[in-house]
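Predict structure. Input: diphthine methyl ester synthase, 292 residues.
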Amino acid sequence: MFYIIGLGLCDEKDVTIRGLEAIKGSSRVYLEAYTSILMVQKEKLEAFYEKPLILADRDMVETESDEILASAEREDVSLLVVGDPFGATTHTDIILRARALGIPTRVIHNASIMNAVGACGLQLYNFGQTVSLVFFTDTWKPDSFYDRIKENADLGMHTLVLLDIKVKEQSEENLARGRKIYEPPRYMSIRQAVSQLIEIESLRQTGTLSPDTTLAVALSRVGGGSDNQRIVAGTLTDLVNHPEDAFGDPLHSLVLVGKRLHHLEVEYTQDFAVDLERWRNTAKQVYGCALD
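Output follows.
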């Protein structure tokens, strides 16, 4: 059996009982280590699971999956991922490869940012399409995400924006020369994300992401408990001007607030507002939210 097991969002104790049983019964256990950040050291996981873990980088998961799936038709093999297994398309792909080889598969779910985002107080059933925001370069500034955000905004829905991660990436020169030299890890910050959104708004000019009148909520280390979790709310202008360290450690996510904003959502999120009066006034005057 090939198991793909979600580890949740915090530490070694977030694994489900079902997931832990599968890990302990596996002959090999791989830890996928590039689509998200694990908030606990690998050694601590190994001690808790009482199993050695094999780190699986991008190359292994995406192009060398045969190594992971080897003998899984005869014995149990597990792949551990941060969050939920279906939080990244990579994991869907490896399940399809296992099925093509006739290997039985089983997915064990866990919490992910897709449901933990509710910690900010915005109601999950008011969310539309999730989008990803990649690092811009001097020559590459993809803006297709804007169309998805606008579609959500036109329906009054919130948008969860997942911020880019660069782990085990090669520079263009090293890639061209075939050198296995990797750049240091990079994680997109809230201020960088908001700056990129504002930049594309200045080009599109539909008003979808008007900096002074678009409400947003920044999240960091959701599910990590009160000591690590950070939530900051404000207009895009508030967030882009807010101190970088106020947003907490990566990984970061951003929610763009939709116009179908309920007064209970405003009241819950206002505890995280950079400027309480501006948050409430914008919700009332721009979003049309009925507030006392």
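The chain is about 35% helix and 15% strand.
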